[in-house]
Amino acid sequence: MITLFWLLFVCVIYAYFLYPLLLIVVGKYRNNEILINDQEYELPSVTLLLPVHNESDVIEAKLSNIESLEYPDNLLKVILVSDGSTDNTVEIIKNYETDLNLKVIVIENQQGKANALNQGMNEVNSSIVVFTDASIMLDKQSIHKIVEPFSDNNVGCVSGEDHIPANQGGEGLYGKYELFLRNKESKIDSIVGASGSFYAQRTQLIKPFEEGLAPDFLSVLNTVNAGYRAITQPRAIGIMSASKSTSNEYNRKVRTLLRGMAALFSNLKLLNAFKYGWFSVFLFSHKLMRWLVPFFLLILLISNYFLIDQFVYKLLFSGQLLFYSLAIVALPQNSKLNNTVIGKIPLFFTIVNLAILKAWFLFFQGKRQEIWNPTKREEN
């Protein structure tokens, strides 16, 4: 029982602490950071592809944001796909048709995000496609910045960085942690996940999207499988707010995780480190190990209970109970702990791991997330 306890303890610590340390150490000896020469790089043609569903509360701000982007008009095309919107999203969009180089595709009955993306891809004739969501507001130089790494012919996919203010709950803190990992992975080899709200890919590498598979994750996997690198561009910035409620964040996580699991299990060959090197290590550590943490935690708590007669294990058991108690106390929106680090971190960590458990349950039931409902976020 003692061996089991410490084995599980090390697995949890590895997933969240030792893996980042591994990236830091490896990064000191292996640096494949892309060097960009702004003077010699010829700007590519770009399509900005934006799928939407009932986004009337943010679509006008998003279109104004697109209008402010600094990229040559003759090289930028915007394709907006409304996937069965039942509010006035389409009416708002049509007010901008003449002001933007905008192609609007209206799908009457909602068929899912993958179908919306595929419909949009049918109209693409540029060398680069930038995928974005309605909820993220892009820096005016963000298109310039996100296409710069494509000056290296080995780069096939580039992720932007979505910044959530750290004062907007645990999601903002967790976002900073994820960006740290992504930057380290990018400098060594390839990232294992792009920002679903803002990323770019070479058109030649884009395969038809499949319902139930995370589009952004699948784009990275397809890129690496084709022999190209997927990297992050810290200077391509988008700002987004945290989810409006804990339940919204939980449901979003379940959807994202379920799609991610389906995408990974469709590409298990990428876990072959003999062929894919460090990327396989990253994929195993950053994704699969993280997704196994809830099971580690559950068995850890149970095994800890059977060792409780020893002082050190009694202390560790009490620590676990305190951590989860803080999460419960911080759960109500009006909780004072909700706005403090000692409340935000336990709450978000617990929500994430409960979402992983729910996603595994749905995955093994054979269920897939096909219909798409964008997460409602706080107003900026």
SSE map:
Elements: H1 2-29, E1 46-52, H2 59-67, E2 76-83, H3 89-94, E3 102-107, H4 113-121, E4 128-132, E5 137-138, H5 142-147, E6 155-163, H6 170-188, E7 198-202, H7 215-225, E8 229-239, H8 246-265, H9 273-276, H10 278-305, H11 311-330, H12 341-364
Parallel strand pairs: 1-2, 1-4, 2-3, 6-8
Antiparallel strand pairs: 4-7, 5-8, 6-7
Quantity of strands, as a count: 8
Percent of residues in helices comes to: 40-55%
Overall SS class: alpha/beta
**Overall geometry:** globular
CATH architectural name of the domain at 46-251 = Alpha-Beta Complex
> What is the oligomer described by this structure?
single chain
**Biggest sheet: strand arrangement:** 3-2-1-4-7-6-8-5
* Arithmetic mean of pLDDT: 91
CATH fold name of the domain at 46-251 = Spore Coat Polysaccharide Biosynthesis Protein SpsA, Chain A
Order of helices and strands, N to C? HEHEHEHEEHEHEHEHHHHH
Total helical segments? 12
The whole-angstrom Rg is 21 Å
Keywords: Glycosyltransferase, Membrane, Transferase, Transmembrane, Transmembrane helix
EC number: 2.4.1.-
Pfam families: Glycos_transf_2
Protein name: Poly-beta-1,6-N-acetyl-D-glucosamine synthase
